[in-house]
Amino acid sequence: MSGARQGSRGPIDCRPGTGISPAGMERNLMDRIVTRTLSCGMALLVERMSGVKSVGLAWNVPAGSAHDPADRVGISAMWAELLLRGAGELDSRAHADALDKLGVSRGTPVETFALGVSATLLGSRLADALPLIVDMVRRPRMDERQIEPVRDLCLQAIESLKDDPQERVQVMLKERHAPAPINRSSLGTVEGISAVKADELRELWEARAKPGGSVMALAGDVDADAAAKQLERLLAGWSGAGERLTWDEGTAPRGYVHETDQTNQVHIAVAHDGPAEKDEGSWPERVATAVLSGGMSGRLFTEVREKRGLCYSVYASYGTDATFGRTVAYVGTTPERAQESLDVLMGEIMRLRTEEGRVTPEEFQRAVVGMKSKLVTSGESSGARAAALVRDYHRLGRGRSLEEMTARIDALKVEDVNRHLRGSSLGRMTIATIGPQALKVKRET
Amino acid sequence: MSGARQGSRGPIDCRPGTGISPAGMERNLMDRIVTRTLSCGMALLVERMSGVKSVGLAWNVPAGSAHDPADRVGISAMWAELLLRGAGELDSRAHADALDKLGVSRGTPVETFALGVSATLLGSRLADALPLIVDMVRRPRMDERQIEPVRDLCLQAIESLKDDPQERVQVMLKERHAPAPINRSSLGTVEGISAVKADELRELWEARAKPGGSVMALAGDVDADAAAKQLERLLAGWSGAGERLTWDEGTAPRGYVHETDQTNQVHIAVAHDGPAEKDEGSWPERVATAVLSGGMSGRLFTEVREKRGLCYSVYASYGTDATFGRTVAYVGTTPERAQESLDVLMGEIMRLRTEEGRVTPEEFQRAVVGMKSKLVTSGESSGARAAALVRDYHRLGRGRSLEEMTARIDALKVEDVNRHLRGSSLGRMTIATIGPQALKVKRET
Q1: How far is A241 from chain B (nearest CA, A)?
Q2: Is the CB of residue B393 less than 8 Å from the CB of residue B260?
Q3: SS3 state at A43
């Protein structure tokens, strides 16, 4: 779906990041975000941060886990490894040496809608590093002798999940709450990875890694014009658009799923629906989640952990995409306390949406201050800013400045949050548990 | 040991952070670090960072896991919880509300030599937050009704380690490699936590939480004079020094320890000695560790993961303290590959110290660039800078600027690293494994 979003503006398009400023060549210097669509069709977002010597790079290519062919689930996990093992003229060792020589920390996270290439480095090294980074996507070697070791590693990663029930319960939750193919683990499946052939890796990458649907963000010590000019050169000749994803929301099974395992803790994860990023309700929902889980005065922390001492770890987290939103809550506790922990967790999620449980002005105030404080702190990290810009573009088609988001929070009132909560639907909920025994699920919406 | 380091300078002492500048009231504006010993005896380090709106606070109090009485191991873990549950006039809820209202993210990490209080917030809120934060250390309530829930949580945290073999193997390694009492897990023990009485919590905290041996660092949007003045007021009347720790290096058992567990992965951890921070060898050792594990061209990544595909996760990490240093390496792999993984890991650690395995000029170059790059990136985070200053003060008695550390790295030559490696001793090594079967340990130094 979002993977197919293709740039529609020409290479000279250059607009500020706020929605309220007029489009055109003008730049809003205050929020410092420059957005361009390069000739090839890829979107480029650049934010210069003052007082910063590093630059964060985030590049999403429409080849995420949801794009994997149904009988090759995990091919994206193999690509993530292979992109780090040689590109262009440089074999695996030479390419790694070259990037390390420039002091580039990098990674290739597999996400649902994208394969990411992320990097942090000194701004002064960016011009030297970009050719090496671009080669990872445009000319990965996928040398024959790398394929089997990579397959092995990917299978090991799945295997190691067996020793990590806290992570595994999240995989179970996503698989059941979201419809296929956007319900997949980033690790892939044993069957899918075992079936992948060397030729498929190369051919399918060629077909997937397209500028249309790709987006790159640079944040920190970076000059937008120079970076854009260099990227135009490096990406010349790249063309086409990634595959359009579709799914049917109605196909997700949801409900309750339990895995019996003689773990010492019971791991409980809960998911419910929420507004998509572009929906008016996304900011009120974010405040509501902060009331539930935003700080040590959050309701979950207070009710589940502090008052009842039910668990060591409890949280709720709200995430959005272009067309949907989702809140995921987790509690890990002892088998004896598991049922009560689940009941209290579900109770708090529901209570927030009732008249008696409405958000108080004090809670609202704390939530808003905490959100703004975290916004500033994460805004001081070049890597976090680059990642946020790419996420914004994927969800909204544009990058938002910290100032815009702060203003959005400042405009909220507690009544907005309560009105939103009363009118919001959680959808049918999903509960996943891992532990010695299944729990009783009292209510599903 | 280091916990007893007490400030010897008066309240007007104010010196720049570099060792080369003359002491006195003068400030080295370039590196921006101001160090003072407050009237109470606590050291205060302040670094103003330009272009930053947040401030990071790190405060170490000499009440770490190593300070726990031998029959109350884990009392520090209980304090870490209790410090977050009410202080001064404010009960648990009111105190949490007050800090959340100011947007203060905080934590209370238990370390070997200190109980930490860490916070990140907007610089503009610091003056309002400091009284609340100071109360956590000087006037924690430790209300009766909080004690049992906290004890329960601490016991649960230990219990949850059973589901986390990757973390557990590190606990085993530390326990065996370091001498008592500096070999303890930050979680404490079931016996120790079960034995703690409510009165002991309050009385022992009173005895431990002293200004002598305490150090606070503030980094980011902060004015040193204003902060020092406010802290002088808030800490007036606080006096005394923390307990002096002693240990006998010779008492650590070291060698090989295995825990049989039907895990899916085998978790292998290795420790060897290295230079203390103040030793000339600490920087060459840091470069050597970067050659081993600093980037994707690092030897471990190349030899263990990439060439042989032996494991998904492998790394080595060198850490220092005031009087000792330690390198910890980890590899997680399948039972079939475990023996070879351990052998290759040990082989690479040894080879680095041989003539054939010496660090090449290219490796040296990459390691140094990577270290400097990471230094800059972490230097842009106010929280990371505050933590680094406190760590520096604990190990060296002063804070180091990024400029000083960069200059130190720039002064190194590859010959220095190889000379250091040839002359360095690993001490007797420790190996800890968790998995279905014990491994064969071929060599221990």
Answers
A1: 31
A2: no
A3: strand
Q: What is the pLDDT of residues B77-101, one digit of tens each?
A: 999 999 999 999 999 999 999 999 9
Please state the length of chain B.
445
- For residue A73, how many other CB atoms are within 10 A of its CB? 24
Q: What gap in Å lies between CA B408 and CA B285, rounded to an integer? A: 13
The token pair that represents B260 in the structure block: 């049989």
Angle between helices B361-379 and B282-293 (to 10 degrees): 100
Q: What is the pLDDT of residues A370-388, one digit of tens each?
A: 999 999 999 999 999 999 9
- Are the C-beta atoms of residues A321 and A395 closer than 8 Å to each other? yes
For strand B105-107 and strand B115-122, is the pairing parallel, antiparallel, or unpaired?
antiparallel
User: Which helix (DSSP H) or strand (DSSP E) does residue A416 occupy?
Assistant: helix A414-423
Interface touch B362/A97, C-beta < 8 Å: yes
How confident is the prediction for chain B on average, in pLDDT? 91
Query: What DSSP string runs through A125-175?
Result: GHHHHHHHHHHHHHSB---HHHHHHHHHHHHHHHHHGGG-HHHHHHHHHHH
| Under 8 Å between Cβ of A11 and A36 | yes
Yes or no, beta carbons of A264 and B52 under 8 Å apart: no
A121 phi/psi in degrees, rounded to 5: -160, 175
Q: Which residues pair with B331 in a beta bridge?
A: B268, B314
Residue to substitute from A100, A104, A164, interface B, most B β-carbons within 10 A? A100
CA dist A115 and A68 (Å) reads 11
Asked if A79 contacts A115 with a C-beta cutoff of 8 angstroms, the reply is yes
Chain centre distance of CA A387: 9
**Dist CA A200 CA A203 (whole Å):** 5
Q: Which residues of B touch A54 (CB under 8 A)?
A: 373, 376-377, 380
Nearest Cβ partner for B264 among A125, A148, A163: A163
Phi-psi region of A185 (alpha: psi -120 to 50; beta: other; left: phi over 0): beta
Q: Where are the alpha helices (DSSP H) in B297-399?
A: 299-300, 335-351, 361-379, 382-396
Classify B54 as helix, strand or coil.
Answer: strand
Minimum-distance CB partner of A102 among B105, B308, B369: B369
Distance from CA of A313 to the nearest CA of B (A): 9
- For residue A152, the chain B residues in CB contact (below 8 A) are 309
Nearest to B380 among A54, A264, A309 (CB): A54
Q: Which amino acid does the sequence have at A368?
A: V
Q: Please state, in angstroms and rounded to a whole number, the distance separating the CA atoms of residues B265 and A164.
A: 10
Q: Inform me whether the pLDDT recorded for A33 exceeds 50.
A: yes
* CB A341, CB A268: distance < 8 Å: yes
A3, A58, A69, A324, A392 from A7: Cα distances, Å = 11, 17, 25, 22, 15
CA distance A292 to A302: 9
pLDDT in tens, B165-185: 999 999 999 999 999 999 999
Checking if the pLDDT of B271 tops 60, the result is: yes
Confidence grade of residue B340 (pLDDT, cut at 50, 70, 90): very high
> pLDDT by residue (tens digit) across B374-384?
999 999 999 99
Contact at CB, B377 and A100, closer than 8 angstroms: no
Rounded to the nearest angstrom, the minimum Cα separation between A308 and chain B is 7
Instruction: Indicate if the pLDDT at residue A352 is higher than 60.
Output: yes
pLDDT above 90 for A32: no
Task: Nearest by CB to A100, from B162, B370, B372: name it.
Answer: B370
* Cβ atoms of residues A376 and B54 within 8 Å: yes
Q: Give the closest-approach CA distance of A50 to chain B in angstroms.
A: 6
Tell me the domains of chain A and their CATH numbers. 2-234 (3.30.830.10), 254-435 (3.30.830.10)
